[in-house]
Structure formats: C-alpha cells, structure tokens
Amino acid sequence: MTLVPDDRLLEGLNPQQREAVLYRGQSLLIVAGAGSGKTSVLTRRIAGLLQTREAWPSQVLAITFTNKAAAEMRERVGALIGREEAEGMWISTFHSACVRILRREAENFGFTKSFTIYDSADSRALIKRIIKELDADTLGFTVSGVAGKISKAKNELSDVESYARGANFNDPNEAGFVEIFRRYTESLARANAFDFDDLIAQTVYLFRAFPAVAALYQRRFRHILVDEYQDTNHAQYALIRELTRGIAPEHVPADTRMATSADGGIPGASLTVVGDSDQSIYAFRGADIRNIVEFERDFPNSRVILLEQNYRSTQNILDAANAVISNNFDRKDKKLFTTIGSGDKIIGFTGYSGHDEAQFVADEIQKLHDEGVAYKDIAVFYRTNAQTRALEEIFIRSALPYRVLGGTKFYERAEIKDAMAYLITVANPFDPLALRRVMNVPKRGIGPATEAALQSYADANQVTLRDAMRDASLLGLGPKVTGAITGLAQILDEVSATAGTAKVSDILVTLLQRTGFIEALRASRDPQDEARAENVEELVSVTKEFQRNNPEGTLLDFLTEVSLVAAADDLDDSSGTVSLMTLHTAKGLEYEAVFLTGVEEGLLPHQMSASEVGGPAEERRLFYVGITRARRRLFLSLAMTRAQFGEVNVAMPSRYLQEIPADLIEWKQSPGDATSRGGTQPRALNARRPQFSYASSFSELPAAPPRVKTEWANRVTNTVRDNGDLTLAAGDRIRHVDFGDGRVTAVTGAGPKSVAEVQFDTAGRKRLLIKIAPIEKL
DNA sequence: GTGACACCTATTTTT
DNA sequence: TAGGTGTCAC
C-alpha cells in the first residue's frame, strides 16, 4: 500500500492542481475559476483516495450540482481506476442524496418510505388551495409570495414553529402567513409528502433529532466533496456540518474497526469543497455566498488552493470576462489567464427586433457549421425562457437542428401530469393532491361537489381521501357516481398492492387501461387528444427505458428520478443539435461557440433584479458565467426592440457591454449602425424610432428603458405558415418576404422536412424549411 | 356536472 | 400573448 497515487493521476496537472489532488487534511477549499479544470481535479482526488486505499468507495460522498455532472464524475473516476473499483460511491446532487437517506429513515419521524416529492408546481397548487380556503387572497396573499417566503424560511432551517416564535402576530400579514405556513406543513405531513426544500431541511432535522441515525452516516462517509459550493444555501451548509461532525463516544459501536480519538469518539470526515464566488448565481434561491467566503473561519486549519489558469477559453474571452467581473466590488481579486492565445475577437450584433437578432444567430451558426464546427458544440444562451420563442421560430424556418434544455415541457403537459398522478396515487395512498387530480380523469362525473362531499367525510372521520372513496356508498350520492368512485378506489387499491414489486411500465399500462384513460383519449373527437394519447404512450416508453437502465428499479425510484431531474440533465452529447438554454442552466457547461443573446437593460440585468439586494451584482456574475462558457467563439447580441406580452418595447444596450474593453469586440452591427440602417423594418417604427447612438446610449443609460408601443406588434410573430405541397428544385427562383429574390441551389430531405438551400441576390446564402418559409416560387 | 366563452392579469433564474 | 378564472346555458 502506498499513499502516493500513481503518476497517471497527476499527469498534465499544474502545480496548484497537483496540490489540490494530493493535499491530505481535514478541510480543503479549492477556489476554482471558470474553466480551471476543477472537475479533473475533483475526479483525480477521489480516484487517488481510492487507489491508495485511504478510502473505500462506500466512504466517499460527492455532491454535484446536477445529476448529469454526477454521472460524468462517476464515469471519469471509473475510467481512472476501473469501473468496479469505483462502485459504491455516493455521487449525486444534494436532493438525490437526501431522498436516499430519507427513504431509509423516514419512518423515524412519521413518514413512510413511499413519500411523495412535491415539485414547485405541486407546492404552489397546495398553497393556492390553502389561500382559497382561508380567503387569504382578499388580504393580499399571493401564491408566489407565500411560496417564496416558505421556501426561504425552510432554506434557513426555520420551520413553522420556529418561524412563529419570531413572528409578530399583531401584524395581520405576519399572522396570516404563519397560518398558511402551518396548514401547508400539516397538509404535507398528512399527504406523506416533502417539498424540494424539505428534502434538505428534514434530513438536517433528522440528524439533529436522532444522533444515532446521524452517527450511522457520519461513520459511513469519511470523505465528503462538494462541488459548486458557492451555490449552497444555509440548509445545505448545515447538512454538511452535520455529516462532517465527529462522532461522540456513546454513538461509537463497541466493535468499530475505525480509528478512534483519545476520548473514544471518531473524528469528523474530511471535507473538500470547490467553488468560485464569481459564479454564484443562485442567491434568489437561498444560496448564501458567505458559505464559501467564510469557509476558512468555519473550518479552522483548512487549506485554500487557488486555480486561476484557464484551459478552456481564448485570452480575448477571458479578458472580457475579467473586465466585467472586476466591476463587482467586495470580491477577492482573481484573474483568469491562459496560454492558448488571444483568439478571435468577440462578435457583437444589434438587431431591430428579437427576430432580427435570432436571424443573425441562425446565420452565424450556419456559417460556423460550414466552417466545420459541429452543431452540438454550439450553444445559445438567454436570460429568460420567453426569449426562446423568437429563436425557435427562426431556427425552424432555417431548418437548424436545435434543442431547448430545461423547460422540461414533457412532464408539464396536463396528460403527462395526469398519468404521473396515477402513479403517485398508487405509490403513496396518503397523497390527496395526486388523487384529486385523477379522480375525474377520464370524466367519471365526479365534480367539485362530489369531491367536497368525499373530503368532508374524510375530515369528519379522520381518514384519507382514498379511504373515503372506499366508503362512498355511505355518502348518499347518486348510484352512478357512487359506482364510479368505488370502482376507481378498487382499481387503485389493487394496483397499489403490486406497486412495490411490479415493473413500472406494467403498473402504468395497467392503470391506463383499467381506468379507461387511454381509451378516452383515443375515442375523443378532439384532434388534440390524439397527440395527447401519443404523449402518454411516450411516457410508457420512458418507463420501459427506465426499467432497462435500472432492472431493480421500483416505482418509487422512477418517481424520484422524474422529480429530481435538472434542466441540464437532459443534455445529450450525442444529439448533434445546437443547444438552447438559460444562463442559469449553462453553469458548468462549455461550448466551442457561444451566443449570448438579449444583452439588454431590463433583460440582463433583468428588471426584477434591480430592486433586490445584490441583484445587479448577481446579474453581472450571470453574464460572467455566460461569457466563460465559450471556448473559442463568443457572440454577444441584442435587439433594439423586443416583443413582450404582445407589446413591442424599446430596449437599450446592457450596462455590462460597456465594461468590456472596446478593442475586444468587433461589432457586425452596433447599436449606432442599427439606428441608421434602412431596409426591411416597417416604416411606422422608422418614423418614431428614438435616435440614440452607440456612444450616447452608454453614457446616458436610463434607469428603465422607455416603453413604446407600436402598431406592428402582431406582425412579426405571425410568421408560421404552411406552403402545402410546394416543391422546389435546384435552379428555381423564389421570393422570400425578408430576404428578397434568390435561386435554389439544392434541396435536401423529404416531405414536410425538405430544406432548400437558397442563394439570395442580396441576403446571402440561407437554408429554409420549404413547408413553412415565407416564400413563393417565381 | 360539463363545456363554451369572455375577461383579466402576470409575466426571472430552478433543485 | 397565454394561461387561468369566472359566468352562463345546457
């Protein structure tokens, strides 16, 4: 046995990285600038611990930000030291790790292991119900306001009781909130459910209330590593503290084979955290930057290692990033550098509208692709999800293969939620939220009145809604409804009985068939229901896929996995498509070429951030994160006007643009040029366009961009059309609404997906999806 | 209980 | 714009 890992683990590392891999001590903070190879360092550090037998795999707990990052880390450690050698490590997100612990331990405090995880939508639905019950909306309580406050409290480890202790009950707002919070907590407990924030907070409570349980995990995890430490919130911090606490002698089993300290206890686990306070972008979700800033104070005798050399981007990109972030005061100075060379200049572009901007992005992507950059190495970032609309429209028209990350819309579809609610009901019979959702799907004649009758029976007899359904015959309802209710209850009970053992897809198919769910969709004359039926079938495929990957996986495992997927998790490296995502989702990723769109006041920084403490600084970090994702090519774009809520507003360049040294950016079309270009934009706008030039727009940024309503609001977005069976062949002349006349040079693909390559007389070469492009044959 | 329709309002980021 | 809510007739 040797304590020095073999050379392969240290190969190609710089001295700081090397030290970060080799350091052995109780606590280590690795301050890792963007692109400084921290994943590499982390994986090699873990691999080293295992290789030297300082740790067994089961003694390692590594926390990552997304499931995808976890999978990648597992893979990379496996590649370094052998897959079997690496088995048994816990590498997961905070939430997944806590679910794993809670499923084992929930019975300690009144939950069953089949608890439901309420996602934000579920939480909001419950809060909405409570607000309605209490008529609290008349007092000014909103769902989002209450949800935010509850989440914040839980992230600070404050439950209703402790919150109430500090509350001022003379203030009706305060008193009302406490009442809602109390009912919310009770409802969750009755439903055998945890919300996202509970997963962390309840695990902390569990450890604090049951030291023997805590000791189990403290003994097990001897090496804890946390990535993206700057984005941990207080609850997560507390969890780490609990896990790394030493074990008191009375909780050490007599037959322990572990080294004990003088008093017979066991010292705490070693802790490695990796982070970069410049990339902290989740304060809005409770992330507390102090966790990383005060690490050295929290964990005395800790070592701090700085990684500043960047292996990802060109110097121009890094210079821009450094320049921007240096405007945040109150930060430790850190400058990224590289030996790659300065590289291409950053390209800037100002469009007239979001569509114009999107067209620029599409054109440049096409050019990059022609130069040999694969689509999968290109990403488009934006601040808000709403910005995808214009991008998608243009991308579809240009026949660009793309995929939108996040907005995991599949699971948000009503029919999928319904089908999932069936699964949840079967797994957790205590959950009324899921049951209520499916009670009348497909239509069984169980309306609000019947539901209320069931609910009051349940309340009066202190039983669950599910129990009440079994007793429906006692309620004096009509025979038809009664039959429908007891029939459903019976199906659910029978399927529930198999939930622990049966295959997930079998459970789902049985439910869909026996409840008549799928049949109702197929029999419907609403054409949309056909698509819905297909979606539900897609869900069946998803369960089958899940079972293939997890032969032992239970229904609970499936439900957990679905609840905890992160936006970045559905990134598929083999997809061959351009990736579209929010700046938040982009964290931790990197691309050959990056398009950062909507660099405008009001969007980046976002309007909403202006009123928040630290808002503008956090937005700047977001911009910084976006810039540093790019390896070689960076495009910054904005639009002069942006359609929003059916209105068109004038937008101003973002203040952050002027923080980038001018010589780093080459403007293809600067905000100044954009005001004077003639051409395709409507006259109405031309006439009233405010005259601001590039230079002056920076020196006199208004606090909020002026809102100008124009009459062509609807014109731009109404572009999706159908050319029917229009067929084109090379050589045809066509006319395009925006690009004018051109000649078709090639046609590829078939049917509705055929694409024409067109050389326009003035607008250059474009690819167009024939079916929907605004073109006519000449 | 259901479905159609009109009206109103809320718009950041996410595990 | 779009989604959610409320009202009304059947």
UniProtKB/TrEMBL annotation:
GO terms for molecular function: 3'-5' DNA helicase activity; ATP binding; DNA binding; hydrolase activity. Residues 11-314 form the UvrD-like helicase ATP-binding domain. Its EC number is 5.6.2.4. It holds the Pfam family PcrA_UvrD_tudor. ATP binds at residues 32-39. One of its GO terms (biological process) is recombinational repair. Residues 315-588 form the UvrD-like helicase C-terminal domain. It catalyses: Couples ATP hydrolysis with the unwinding of duplex DNA by translocating in the 3'-5' direction; ATP + H2O = ADP + phosphate + H(+). One of its GO terms (cellular component) is DNA helicase complex. InterPro entries: DExx_box_DNA_helicase_dom_sf, DNA_helicase_UvrD-like_C, DNA_helicase_UvrD/REP, P-loop_NTPase, UvrD-like_ATP-bd. Keywords: ATP-binding, DNA-binding, Helicase, Hydrolase, Isomerase, Nucleotide-binding. CDD domains: DEXQc_UvrD (cd17932), SF1_C_UvrD (cd18807). Belongs to the helicase family. UvrD subfamily. This is DNA 3'-5' helicase.
